[in-house]
Design goal:
Elements: H1 2-14, H2 26-58, H3 65-80, H4 84-87, H5 90-96, H6 111-122, H7 126-150, H8 152-155, H9 158-192, H10 196-200, H11 216-219, H12 222-262, H13 265-271, H14 276-282, H15 287-314
Helix pairs in contact: 2-7, 2-14, 3-7, 5-6, 6-9, 6-12, 7-9, 7-12, 9-12
């Protein structure tokens, strides 16, 4: 085969009638042209799937509204189930505020105690944030599956349908992983640095009470500890309200928007690397469809034959 193709190239490149168009002659060029045709056909089918998927997200087809249900119902419910008050028990507050000041001593005192109470409370929001990402991933994966079944062209080519489905799931899983990192980072940013203005507005002359000769652990009175607990709870609720809106924005940006914009981009890149035989494999028709077409063809021929006989009798 290699020798035959080399001789073919030599013939066209040396023949004066074909020399100027030798690069467009021979079996190799024909194979490339056929591959381009197959590639174009596959891309058109994939675009049909992609369009149906986008219609689900845009509300043209049903299912996309489930995304907003996650944001409007599931996430708020998960945040409400967090027990911030449990972390802010009188015993825990008393223990934490006796710790040394941190790197924002100008902010509040005792800062390190405040910081630990806030961090341990806010870190629990990571769970609802990750659950939101996973819920959106499930919705997107389900919409992709529906889009596969609703793309008429894919029903004819089972191999291509499997490849497109796998490519869509792989892409959605990568988007989910990136979205999870972004959502968790939102929470971690709030844990790592406190909002200064909130604490600057708090009264700075709180009465600690107690006997100075007592240990630091025993010196703070209950009223003071209760006030610290309330301040921390108010701050945590404020941040929780912010994250209630920020997490959906992050998820939409990292998952929904990217899925709509580039769900099959990697698959398209890989398609361009495939040879003619590999492309042909993707366009192998479903045997059942081929059998049905053959049966319909035979029936059509019978109808034509019968019509010809009827016409012959009539005349």
């Amino acid at each position: 085969m290699v020798v035959a193709r080399r001789r073919e190239r030599e013939y066209f490149s040396s023949n004066p009638d074909y020399k100027h168009i030798a690069h467009r002659m021979g079996s190799e060029h024909l194979a490339k042209m056929l591959s381009k045709g197959q590639l174009y056909a596959i891309l058109e089918i994939c675009r049909a799937f992609d369009q149906i998927f986008k219609e689900h997200l845009d509300g043209v087809r049903p299912g996309g509204d489930r995304i907003y249900n996650v944001f409007d119902n599931q996430l708020p419910a998960a945040l409400k189930r967090l027990s911030f008050e449990k972390n802010l028990s009188m015993e825990n507050v008393r223990k934490r505020i006796t710790e040394a000041d941190g790197y924002q001593p100008h902010l509040i005192a005792p800062e390190q105690g405040y910081r630990h109470l806030i961090e341990t409370s806010l870190s629990t929001i990571k769970g609802p944030a990750e659950a939101t990402v996973d819920a959106i991933h499930y919705v997107l994966k389900d919409l992709a599956h529906k889009s596969l079944t609703e793309t008429a062209e894919l029903k004819q080519y089972p191999s291509l349908r499997i490849e497109v489905g796998n490519a869509a799931v792989d892409a959605l899983e990568k988007l989910r992983d990136e979205s999870r990192k972004s959502a968790v980072k939102l929470v971690e940013m709030e844990c790592s640095y406190l909002t200064v203005d909130f604490f600057r507005k708090l009264p700075q002359d709180l009465e600690k009470g107690g006997n100075p000769s007592q240990s630091v652990f025993d010196r703070y009175n209950e009223s003071y500890l209760h006030r610290i607990g309330n301040n921390v709870l108010a701050y945590v609720n404020m941040v929780c309200g912010y994250l209630r809106n920020a997490i959906p924005k992050s998820v939409v940006h990292c998952q929904v928007r990217e899925a709509k914009r580039s769900l099959l981009d990697h698959f398209f890149t890989e398609l361009g690397k495939k040879e003619g035989k590999q492309l042909s494999t993707l366009l192998d028709e479903d045997p059942a469809v081929m059998e049905r077409r053959a049966g319909l063809g035979k029936r059509l021929e019978l109808y034509k034959s019968a019509q010809a006989e009827i016409d012959g009798v009539a005349f």
